[in-house]
Design brief:
It contains one helix and ten strands. The protein is α+β, with helices and mostly antiparallel strands. The strands form two sheets. Strands 1-2-9-4-7 form a five-stranded antiparallel β-sheet, with helices on one face. The longest helix is centred in the N-terminal third of the chain and has 26 residues.
Length: about 170
């Protein structure tokens, strides 16, 4: 079995997992649980910092906002995050399956247990990527900040591949 086939099979499994999770969620959710909301980009209430928020990479300068749902519950949620320029994110994973889009900037992203600069792929605004449950991934911003959003079914958490990278241990 080639690595390309294994990679495509893993990606297919992740998409299938998201579809099954969202279908199961939709079957138990009423329309009244998600209220109509309109927020222009200039009015997004970014927090000062979310450097130690579960379900994030916990990097200095990171701003995270759950814009819909509850990331701590067994429920659908959407999280937006903003990282400053020149930020490196070490390998880490989350227990939830995520479907994500880059909204602004260029996000450099890869999968693996150990950071490998050559594996990073440039994802400009409009790009889609997934974060399969339990799969380590790493990323970085370069000359510009990045805003991205991820949708998943919680609860979420963060596990670093190398415990020394975990700011909760400092």
């Amino acid at each position: 079995m080639t690595s390309h086939y294994r990679s495509n099979r893993k990606a297919g499994f992740a998409v299938l997992s998201i579809a099954v999770s969202l279908t199961a969620f939709a079957a138990t959710t009423t329309a009244q649980e998600l209220k109509p909301t309109l927020v222009p980009a200039t009015e997004i209430p970014w927090p000062d910092s979310a450097a130690r928020t579960e379900g994030t990479s916990m990097r200095s300068g990171l701003q995270t906002l759950v814009i819909a749902g509850d990331s701590k519950a067994n429920a659908l949620y959407t999280m937006m995050f903003k990282l400053p320029a020149e930020t490196k994110v070490p390998p880490h994973s989350h227990p939830d399956v995520r479907s994500c889009f880059v909204l602004s900037g260029t996000w450099y992203f890869a999968y693996g247990d150990v950071r490998d600069e050559a594996a990073l792929k440039a994802l400009p605004a409009g790009s889609h990527y997934t974060e399969p449950a339990g799969m380590n991934h790493f990323a970085e911003t370069r000359a510009e900040p990045v805003v991205a959003e991820c949708t998943a079914v919680g609860p979420t958490a963060t596990t670093f591949a190398n415990p020394a990278d975990d700011p909760r241990r400092r």
